[in-house]
Design a protein that fits this description.
Keywords: Membrane, Transmembrane, Transmembrane helix. Pfam families: Tim44. 37% of the residues lie in helices and 27% in strands. It has two domains: 47 residues; 170 residues, Nuclear Transport Factor 2, Chain: A (Roll). The protein is an alpha+beta fold. Strand 3 and strand 4 form a beta hairpin.
Length: 249
């Protein structure tokens, strides 16, 4: 490397170029500058590596078990959470709709009928019937259903018990009870009113065999969407609404 490449002053090159090693001095300065720069870079990286990293809360170990903490359940998702589940949302068609008109006709025939109170009764009946079916409570089912519906439920219980199976149904919450359809029909010289509702619930539903192994369902909380039809005979003293049929939505 020549001193001309660095444009040294002319009086220095003319007087001392032959006796003083300017190339060596310039290279030494460059090497020192690079070394200082390298030291600063390495020093900063060591500083970053020494910073303590924060462990996310969701991955923090629980006690000394080594297991990780699961994310929190939604509010009211479990009975053991200590929080009351939110009330069910009730949906009723507007009076101007066809279904709303049928509801008005039912009110005219049966004094005291109120769609809002009806849905509250449906929610109560839903909880009672699901629990009674799991427990094999035939008396509750017979009183809450029409004859045909009760026969279907009781036959299912008989088959379950004959196989040594057990049903677990734990309702963790009812999210929605919606009135979908209504009709009034004449059957056997009787005026029968039928109302179809959609019920959205969260349940732990599990069927186990005689050895306790799962057959259908899971231990996890699962959302269920059901369509239930209730009916009553108008013009009589018996104003109860009974479950006539049920199926998954």
């Amino acid at each position: 490397m020549s001193s001309d490449a660095f444009h040294l002053p002319a009086f220095l090159t003319s007087q001392t170029a032959s006796v003083f090693p300017w190339d060596v001095v310039v290279l030494a300065i460059i090497a020192a500058a690079l070394g200082f720069r390298l030291y600063r870079i390495l020093g900063r990286r060591v500083g970053v590596q020494g910073v303590k990293q924060t462990v996310p809360r969701s991955a923090a170990p629980v006690g000394n078990t080594g297991r990780t903490m699961p994310p929190p359940l939604p509010e009211g998702a479990g009975a053991a959470s200590g929080a009351e589940p939110p009330p069910a949302r009730h949906e009723i068609p507007a009076p101007a709709t066809r279904v709303g008109g049928v509801l008005i006709d039912i009110v005219k025939v049966r004094s005291g009928f109120n769609p809002q109170d009806f849905l509250k009764g449906v929610e109560t009946a839903f909880r009672q019937i699901v629990t009674a079916f799991a427990n094999g409570d035939r008396a509750v089912l017979t009183g809450a259903m029409t004859e045909n519906a009760a026969q279907a439920y009781l036959s299912a219980i008989d088959a379950r018990e004959a196989a040594g199976e057990k049903q677990r149904s734990d309702i963790r919450g009812v999210e929605k009870v919606a009135l979908l359809n209504a009709e009034v029909v004449n059957e056997n010289e009787r005026s029968v009113a039928r109302i179809e509702v959609e019920i959205v619930s969260r349940q732990v539903s599990l069927l186990t065999n005689s050895e306790g192994h799962p057959v259908i369902g899971t231990e996890a909380v699962t959302e269920f969407n059901d369509l239930w039809v209730f009916e009553t005979v108008l013009g009589t003293d018996d104003t109860r609404w009974r479950l006539a049929s049920s199926r998954p939505a």
